[in-house]
Write a structure and sequence with these properties.
single chain, alpha+beta, 18 helices, four-stranded antiparallel beta sheet, three-stranded antiparallel beta sheet, elongated, hpI Integrase, Chain A
């Protein structure tokens, strides 16, 4: 416990400040308590100092008898905050979060992540003052989520139904929200509830009923599966590639670039022609955030050498030099989620279905190219993990020696690693890319 001046201000081990004051002996009647302690409901020392002075004056004024004092009224500011509705708190919370989100991800974080999950919270609890919400309300929210159908707005029998109506229905287990979806909701809502407490907008931390409710069903490596040999044969050894039946160059090239670089979908879809660069005699992709391009994080910016198969057998540089367009794939248009949205729908919903990849198996989608790339090197005993992390745009080594003080591998070393990728099951020499 840390004590500051004035001596009646103390801090708990959890960081919350408390007002604490010893009652003089002559005021301790009938074995009454000898210590007054009140939570100041803040982690900010300056705020705590101000509120502690309020308590000190009140204690002295009431001759150390606090029975007539409402313990929730610490200040006019606290009263005003406590009167905010749940909806108003959500808007304030999202506004604060947006200040920390990089612009490229702000739309997704707000409209795909936080806002839908918090809107469901208000649909279940209504719009009460935040200070009136109790843990019993959060337990109610939790129990309702366990009984909620997935994709309720897309399924006619659930669409338009209120929460009460849904709770009265018999929903088959296969229609219920998955554990992963429920867990994602709990994480975001718990973050908001913790924020309420930290900002003196709730009487207690309400997030505990949502913590550690659902354990992971699978290890991270099993959440998606890499493409196996038969998958790669199906993806590339077909009429789309062998007879040039792709409708646009992006459909032909982006799966190939993903196979040989392990790059993320949007990183490839947003490429400019100027991002294909010759460095030290090695053709590379410069994955950057120039202009309106978006990256997942700072470590995503990187240089990835191009495999000789792309340059020599498939003549990728002809595509790069064959137009004056700024974008490498001008047919892909930007959306609020980036350049990859339409391509993702085509590959995951249309192309995979047409070629029969991933049907009835563990989750396989475009991101499986990235898993395929990583798994290829994982099976080679002599490849250090940090070298693959550099190519994938991960944070790199988990050790401070490499991550803080170490420099990146040389471009020659990266090119040699890329060149070691071999896919003999794919008939690159028979490809026709005259779209």
């Amino acid at each position: 416990m840390t004590v500051f001046n004035p001596s009646y201000l103390v801090q708990s081990r959890h960081g919350i400040w408390y007002f604490q004051m010893q009652v003089p002996p002559n005021f301790c009647k009938n074995n009454s308590r000898t210590l007054i302690r009140r939570s100041l409901r803040t982690r900010d020392r300056n705020v705590a100092l101000s509120r502690s002075k309020f308590w000190y004056l009140k204690v002295v004024e009431l001759d150390y008898d606090l029975s007539s004092l409402n313990s929730n009224e610490t200040s006019k500011e606290s009263d005003k905050k406590s009167s905010l509705s749940l909806g108003e708190c959500i808007e304030t919370f999202i506004s604060e979060k947006k200040r920390g989100w990089r612009d490229p991800h702000s739309y997704i974080n707000e409209h795909k992540d936080y806002r839908p999950k918090l809107s469901l919270l208000t649909e279940i609890l209504g719009n009460p003052p935040s200070n009136d919400i109790t843990k019993a309300d959060i337990v109610k929210y939790k129990n309702i989520l366990f009984k909620m159908p997935s994709n309720r707005n897309k399924k006619p029998k659930y669409s338009g139904q209120t929460i009460e109506q849904l709770m009265d229905m018999h929903i088959p287990p296969n229609d219920l929200l998955s554990n992963t979806t429920i867990s994602n909701n709990f994480v975001k809502v718990a973050s908001f509830l913790s924020w309420l407490s930290e900002n003196d907008l709730a009487q207690t931390n309400l997030s505990s009923p949502l913590r550690r409710v659902i354990r992971k069903e699978k290890v991270d490596s099993e959440l998606r599966s890499e493409f196996k040999r038969h998958d790669l044969e199906a993806i590339f050894n077909n009429d789309f590639y062998l007879k040039g039946k792709h409708r646009c160059s992006a459909h032909f090239w982006i799966p190939l670039l993903a196979l040989f670089t392990g790059a993320r979908l949007n990183e490839l879809c947003q490429l400019d022609r100027a991002d294909i660069v010759l460095i030290e005699g090695i053709w590379c992709i410069d994955i950057n955030r120039n202009g309106r391009k978006r990256l997942k994080n700072l470590s995503s910016a990187r240089i990835v050498p191009l495999h000789s198969t792309l340059i020599n057998e498939l003549s990728f540089l002809e595509l790069v030099k064959g137009s004056e367009e700024i974008k490498l794939f001008p047919e892909l248009k930007e959306s609020p989620e980036g350049y990859g949205q339409s391509f993702s729908k085509w590959f995951n919903r249309t192309y995979r279905k047409n070629i029969g990849v991933g049907q009835g198996e563990r989750r396989k989608d475009f991101h499986s190219f990235r898993h395929t790339f990583a798994n290829y090197f994982k099976q080679l005993n002599d490849v250090q993990e940090f070298r693959v992390s550099e190519l994938l745009g991960h944070k790199g080594s988990s050790t401070i020696t490499y991550s803080r003080y170490g420099k990146e591998s040389s471009l020659v070393a990266k090119a040699a690693l890329i060149e070691s990728l071999q896919f003999p099951m794919i008939r690159f020499d028979h490809f026709n890319h005259n779209e």
